[in-house]
Amino acid sequence: MSELVLKNGIVYDPINNVNGEKMDILVKDGKIVEKLNGNAKTIDCSGKIVMPGGIEIHSHMAGGKVNGGRLFQPEDHVRFAMPKTKVTRSGTGFSTPTTFLTGYLYSKMGYTTGMTAAMPPLMARHTHEELKDIPMIDKGAYCLTDGNWFIMKYLKNGEIEKCAAYVSWLLKATKGYVVKITNPCGTEAWGWGKNCRSLDDPAPYFDITPRELVKGLVEVNEILKLPHSVHLHANNCGRLGNFVTTLETFKVPNGTKPAAKRQIMHATHIQFHSYGGDTWHNFESKADEIAKAVNSNKNIVIDTGTVTLDHTTTMTADGPLEYYLQSLTHLKWMNRNVEMETSPGITPFIYSRKMPTASIQWAIGLELSLLIKDPWQVLMTTDHPNAGPFIRYPRIIAWLMSRKYREETASKVHKVIYDRSTIDGIDREYSFYDIAIVTRAGEAKALGLSDRKGHLGVGADADIAVYDINPSEIDPSRDYKEIEKKFSSAAYTIKDGEILVKNGEIVQTRYGRTLWVNSKVDGELEKEVMKDIEYNFKRYYSVNLANYPVREEVLTRSTEVTRSASV
Amino acid sequence: MMTDVILVPKVQHKISLEAEVIKPDEFAGKTIEEIKELPVYFGNTVQKLGDFFEVSGSAEENAENLRIVVEGDVSRVKRIGEGMTTGEILVKGDVDMYLGARMKGGRIVVEGSVDSFAGQQMRGGEIEIKGNAKDYLGGSYRGDWRGMRGGRIIVEGNAGKEVAEFMRGGEIIIKGNCDSFAGVHMKKGLVIIEGSVAERVGAEMVGGSIIVLGEMANLLPSFKIGEVVEGLKIDGREFPGKFRKYIGDFAEGPSVKGVIYKRL
Asked: Cα angle vertex A184, ends A182, A186, to 5°?
C-alpha cells in the first residue's frame, strides 16, 4: 500500500495536545507512523490546517425512518441534486440525501466517520443494507432500547444481569455500536396513545418509570463495559419548559461509575431539551441553566443539535413528539410502532427566521456551545436532519468562531432572541483547537474510539482532513464567510491513507468499515436469556428468531470492537 | 419595442426534451449563436438547444421586451418558461409538461394544448392556453403542500384532474369543462369553471373560492349547504344570476372557509 507524507501542515490534534504546530504527518498502510523508508508521495500542506478526519456522533443518515423521509418527500429531492461524475454516482435530497450522496457530502467536508443515531432492532437489517451503500466513511449504528419489552421486564424485576445479557445479545444480533435510549418509556406508552411527561411517569402495563429505565441501562452499559456510554434522547423532547426534566435526567446516573475513561451519559441534541416557558408566547432559552449543570458535572457529555434555520425534516424514534409537531404545523407526517421495540415518526419542519420559536431555538444551540466551558463536553451536531442538514456544519463552525457572524444572523431573525436568550451577550469565539475538539477529537473520545480515531498520533487510522486555511493569515471572527467556505470543501480528505477528496472534489470512492460491538457475557447467563428470547419471539414477534440477527456478510469491512462484560 | 426570437423544431423525438432554458430571462442579451449553445436535457444526456431547434431573430438586451415564438409542435418539450420572470413566450402548437412551472412574471400563450403540471407553483404572470390543459394545472410539486400562489391561468378548452391542487393564491379560469378533484386541498385563490365540473370538487379544501357556472356532479357530503346568492361579486368580477353557496370541506376540521358557488 501507498506511503504518504503531509508536509509542513499546521496541525490541530487535541488528543495529543498539538495546538497549531507546524509538523509532518507520515502515513503508511492506512496508519499513521513514525518513520517512512520508501519513496512516499508528498503533499505540501504548508499554510494549511491539518486535522484528524471529522467524526459524526449523531446523524440520522440510514435506516427505516430516513428512507421513509426520503420516500414521502419528493419535494425535498427536487431542492438539491448532484449529477454523476466519472467517479461518483448521482444523488438528490437536501435534508434526506440518498445513501451515496450522504457519503460524498460528509467526505467533502473532511469527515471520515459517521454514526447513524437510531436503529430499531427489527429494522437493523434494513439499516445495515443502507449503510452498505454509504461510501467514503466508517459507519456504525445506535441500537434503540427505549421501549423494549425484554429490557423493561428485566429491569422491573431487578434482573440487571439478565438485562445486561439481553442487551449484549441485542447489540450482537443487530450489529449495533451503542445503547441508544429515545424518550425512555414514552415510546412504549405511545402504543397506548400516551406519553411519559416526567421521569416518574411510568410506562403502561410494564409499570417502569423513565428514571428506572435510564438508571438500569446506564448500569447495564457499564456492566458490559461498552466503548460508548448510553446515548440518551431524554423525555419531553421539544416540549415547553422541558429543561427541568433535562436537569433531572442529568442526575439519574449519579452513583454509577463509568467502566472506561469516558462520560457516564451522552445526552443528545440538548438544544431540543433546553426550553423554558409554559406557552409559546413566553417560550425562552434555558441554555444557561443547562450549561451550569454540565459545567458542574464532568461525567456528562452533550451534543448540541444546533438549529440552522432551514426547511428540513424531523425524524426520531420519539413517535409522540412527531405527532405533537404535526399538530402544530398541520403538515404531512408518519408514525409507526415497531412491535416490541420502539415507535418512530417523521414530519417536515420549517425553521423560519421570522418565527420567534425557531429564532430562539437557533440561539439555544449556539448558547450551549458557548456557555459550556469545556469543549470536550459539548460536541457539535445538528441532529441531522432534525435541526438542520449536516451540510450546514461549516456554517455552525463559522458561527462559533465569529461573534460578528452571530450578530449578523441575529439581526435577521426575530428580535425576541434579545429578550429571551443570552446569545447577544456572549463574546466567546472558538479557536481552531476548539473546533477540532467539537468536531472530531471529542467525538472519538466520547465514542471510545480514541485509540484509533480522532487523532494523528502514531498508530491511529490515517483519516485526515486538510483545509486550505492559514491560521496566521485569516481572522476567523472577521472572515467568517471564508471559514464557512473552506470547511465546506476540504483541500484533502484522506481515509485509511488514500486521498478521496482533493480541493473539494471527490477523486476516488472507497467503502469504509462498519463498526459494531461484540459484547461477551458469561455463557450460562446467555443461555438462560436465550430461552426467554426464544419464548418471546415465538409468542409475540412477527419474524422468526433465526431471521432476526444481521449476518456479518451484510456489513462493509465488518470491524468488531470486543468487550467482555463483568458478568 | 418587442423583438422576437423564433424557434422552429428541427426533429420530432419520442424521448422528451427538458428545456427550461426556453425563457426570455435566458435569451436576453445573447447572440443567436450563444442561444444555440444553451444546454438542454435529452434522456440522460446534455445537448444543445441548436441541435433541436432552428433559431433566428434577435434577442434584446432587456428580457422585458423579448418574445420567444415557438413555431411548430413541441409536444415532447418539457419545462418551457420554467421560472421565467418577464417577457413573453408564444407557442404555436402543443406543449409537454411543466409549462411555466414556478414562473414569477411575464406571459405565456399556447395556441395548442398543454400536458400536465402547467403553471405548477407559479407565483405571478399569466398563462393563456387556447386548447386544453391536462392534469394538475396550477398544482404543487409532488409531495409539496404549496401550489400556485399568484398570477393567472386561462384555459379556453377543457382541463384535466386536480386543477388548482393546493392552490394558495392567484386565479384560474377554465372556459370549458373540468375533470374530477378541481380545487383539491385549496387554501386561497379563485377558480372559475365556466363549463361543467366532475365529482369531488373542492375535496379537502380549507379556503379560497370555486365558482361553477355549468353543471356540477355530486358534491362531497362533507360540505354544508349555504344560502342562495343573487348576483355574485368576487375580486372585482361580477357574475349575474342566482348562485347556491356551499361551505367546506369539513373533513379537514371545524373552522374551514372554502366556498363553492354553483350557478342555479
From this structure: 100
Residue A78: closest C-alpha in chain B: B141
- β-pairing verdict for A81-82 and A498-502: unpaired
Note the ipTM here: 0.87
DSSP code for A256: P
Q: Rounded to 5 degrees, what are φ and ψ at A165? A: -65, -40
- On whether any CB of chain A is under 8 Å from the CB of B14, the answer is no
Q: Give how far B140 is from chain A: nearest CA, Å.
A: 9
Q: Is A331 on the interface with B (CB under 8 A)?
A: yes
DSSP single-letter state for residue A491: S
Would you call B143 and A74 a contact, using CB atoms and an 8 Å cutoff? yes
CB of A76 within 8 Å of any CB in chain B?
yes
A75–B144 C-beta distance less than 8 A: yes
Question: Looking at chain A, which residue has its C-alpha nearest residue B145?
Answer: A331
Q: What is the mean pLDDT of residues B65-90?
A: 95
Summarize pLDDT for A129-147 with one digit per residue, the tens: 999 999 999 999 999 999 8
Q: How far is CA A340 from CA A365, A557, B206, in A?
A: 34, 30, 39
Q: Nearest chain A Cα to B144, which residue?
A: A75
- A71 shares contact with chain B (CB less than 8 Å): no
- Count CA atoms closer than 13 A to A59's CA, side-chain side: 32
CB-based contact A76 B145, cutoff 8 Å: no
Q: Is B142 on the interface with A (CB under 8 A)?
A: yes
- Is the CB of B142 less than 8 angstroms away from the CB of A76? no
Q: Which three cell numbers stand for residue A301?
A: 457529555
Taking the Cβ of residue A75 and every Cβ of chain B, the question of whether any pair is shorter than 8 Å is answered with yes
- pTM for the model: 0.94
All structural domains of chain A: 3-52+460-506 (2.30.40.10)
Q: What is the DSSP letter of B178?
A: B
**pLDDT by residue (tens digit) across A237-252?**
999 999 999 999 999 9
pLDDT, tens digit, 9 for 90 and up, residues B244-264:
999 999 999 999 999 999 999
Tell me, what DSSP letter sits at residue B18?
A: E
User: Which chain A residues are closer than 8 Å to B145 by Cβ?
Assistant: 331-332
Residue whose C-alpha is closest to residue B133's, from B107, B154, B105: B154
The rounded distance, in Å, linking the Cα atoms of B255 and B235 is: 23
- Nearest CA to B85 out of B144, B14, B151 is that of B151
Task: Tell me the HSE value of A178 on the side-chain side, using a 13 A CA sphere.
Answer: 30
Element (H, E) at A439: none
